Amino acid sequence: MVDRNSSVPLARQLYDFLRAVILRGQLGAGERLPPTRTLANQLGIGRNTVIAAYDRLLADGYVAARTGGGTWVAHTVSKPSRSETIGAGELSLSRRGSLIASRPQPPRNPGKINLQPGFPEAATFPFSIWARLLAHNAQRRGEDLLGYHDYSGHPSLKEAIASYLGVARGVDCDPEQVVVVTGAQAALDLVSRILVDEGDWVWMEEPGYLGARSAFLGGGARVAPLTVKRDGWRLADPDLPAPRAVYLTPSCQWPLGVSMALDERLQLIGLAERHNAWIIEDDYDGEYRFRGGPVPALHGLDATGRVIYVGTFGKTLFSSLRIGFLIVPRALAASFGRAISVTGQFAPLLVQFTLADFIRQGYFAAHLKRMRRLYARRQRLFVEACTRELGQWISVAENDAGMQVLGKLAPPLDDQMVAAHALKHGVDVQPISINFYHHPPEHGLLLGYAGVDEREMALAVAALRATFQELESCGSQPQLGSIK
Fold first, then answer.
1. Domain with CATH 3.40.640.10 in the chain
2. Residues 6+ apart with CB under 8 A from 389
3. Could you read off the pLDDT tens digit of each residue along the chain, which spans 484 residues?
4. C-alpha 228: how far from chain center
5. CATH fold of 98-113+125-365
6. How much is the pTM?
7. 96-104 contacts, C-beta under 8 A, 24 or more apart
8. How far from each other are the two terminal CA atoms of the chain, in whole angstroms?
9. CATH value of 10-73 in 3.40.50.620, 1.10.275.10, 1.10.10.10, 3.40.50.300
């Protein structure tokens, strides 16, 4: 009932115990509590301690008392009957809540070599510079960092993003069009809430990004498959319904890694204009192109104001930064800002201001330049190692862009089973098949090489080799589709 070694005062311990006993119905309404002197003697504590606990129970309405008449459980407190208790089956989510909760992002497994796609190099990030900028800004007392005046983002960061995109990605926008959010997933969630009504059709790439699909379905949309092959997007598919929006990754298609040709981009813009539809351009890996000139963003071709551009710093700086952004038409900027004040998707102002300094002082551009060189080298080494050590099981080719490469599995290997066995060998990979929703899936691995150094790369390839050898030697190579 009471623990003398606890840091919680004895009177509070006794109060908590008696309160719990009353709420469980073990002491029913009208039942008397022991006299304070009797209970104090039983517990070996001071009578004043018991009086203090009783007084608090009285003040909170759990007991009643009368001078000379003792203390009893108040009649207003009674144990809920079974019929008044909500059954476990009734404690359920809404239909939309159930849908959202059933479509989580693939988890990252800590303690394993990370070959999950989309994770940048962190070991060489200039954290000392970042820490210095952050510490300097933390000492500021400006009103712009101590309260929200513009929910759509700190003006300095919006200016820095607009300036950077104009030079690096060919996106012509004003700072007022920039909407800062807590990552690309938050951006997609916000777009689905603001631009899509329940029951509207959204065209989405097939295969395509799971996080985007979850955001649109969670917003009430219906998703139609826009087929993507290695030779392009099937925009003229007659079976597709009239869209309210089209989501795609034109600079580095997820997961195939191909880039959208200019004629397809122009065709898409014309299609959106005919249907009065939005184009949602996810430029998640647009900065990383290793062969040929950079491919400008689709947004730069749009003269109709129909393209919503989505970007993130989680792929270019470090994953836990949790800052992404949208470029929206001028006419929608105020509405998006007001919506963020409701959804709470705004990033901390101190971090926003520090990121703005990081960009304005040239550190961001210098870091990207280093990473392009590093990733190009790592991709080449990784593909060579996979071809040399794993060629009989998986075919991995270099890609012109992106932070991951696609490895096609030799039949009859099932990629989800391969991924599960690889995890046991200490390497975390993502199967390709989870990105297919309507068509028979391809089986392969989406291998993120950007965040692993040469030592980890060798260990990862060795672990994958051991994985394939184990599956081969046990004589139970899984058939396609055996794991769903």
1. 98-113+125-365
2. 461, 462, 464, 465
3. 788 888 899 999 999 999 999 888 888 888 999 999 999 999 999 999 999 999 999 999 899 987 777 898 987 766 555 555 555 555 678 877 887 787 777 778 888 999 999 899 999 999 999 999 999 999 987 777 777 668 899 999 999 999 999 999 999 999 999 999 999 999 999 999 999 999 999 999 999 999 999 999 999 999 999 999 999 999 999 999 999 999 999 999 999 999 999 999 999 999 999 999 999 999 988 888 887 667 889 999 998 899 999 999 999 999 889 999 999 999 999 999 999 988 888 899 999 999 999 999 999 999 999 999 999 999 999 999 999 999 999 999 998 888 999 999 999 999 999 999 999 999 999 999 999 998 899 999 999 999 999 999 999 999 999 999 999 987 654 444 443 3
4. 24
5. Aspartate Aminotransferase; domain 2 (3.40.640)
6. 0.79
7. 96/218, 96/220, 99/217, 99/218, 100/214, 100/218, 103/210, 103/213, 103/214, 103/217, 103/218, 104/214
8. 51
9. 1.10.10.10
